[in-house]
From TrEMBL:
This is HTH merR-type domain-containing protein. Keywords: DNA-binding. It comes from the Bacteria. SMART domains: HTH_MERR (SM00422). The keyword Acyltransferase does not apply.
Amino acid sequence: MSKNQYLTTSEFAKACGVSKHTLFHYDDIGILKPEYVNEKGYRFYSLKQFSTFDIIVTLQEAGTPLSEIKEYLDHKSPTRFLSVLKQKKKQLALEQKKIERMERLLQTIYDMTKNALQVVCDVPFIQEFEEEYLITVALSPEGIEKEDVKNMGEHFDYCADHHIEYTYPSGIIIGKDHLERGIYHKPEFFFNKLLKKQKGEKVHVKPKGKYAVINHKGGYDMLPKSYVALVNYIKENRLSIIGDAYEQEILSYLAAEDPSDYIIQIAIQVD
């Protein structure tokens, strides 16, 4: 090629839609070196190097690290190209699943927050619930926060390792025995709601049926007061507690700055 068919770094960068510094970086790591460098140190690129740049961009957009792209360019072949594409397709499929999960999660949070702004607070009522499946982790009986943090970390690791997809709301479970003894500050389990029916040692089934419900507005320190109001409502209406209490945040720190604006739903299974 004659010299007038070469492009300067600025010309090549402009044609590729990148900065000169990007090309300098590619040169430094040996992924796209200029066709030649003159005696003054100026870099020049040939037209055929557009194909190499195109390979780099295509693989980068598929999430391939520059180190892997360099390795491929150093040992380029049709078989290796097919292998790289197959690997990238698998990675993109996983990314797509993550995006879809996040879309569902955001929609759930949006709907939950919107509905929370319309609920009646601090007034007990009866509601029928469908069966729900919850993934749970046991909490410290002594209420040791450090131990609970450790258990929660292991809980989320377990969900990730077993590809368990959960959603909001999350919350805690207070056992029937504690309810009957007036112990409202010692939850036994933390839970996340599962998207579908599952089996497993950590799966807890929230039964279908009748529940006495109250939407507590305010911080956690005032929750016992709402439990007392709900239990009194159950007694006044000649109902019996036949199951656990499910306490879940429907408006929390995710949307509210002041804890006095939190809305926490308490539901106790009754008959």
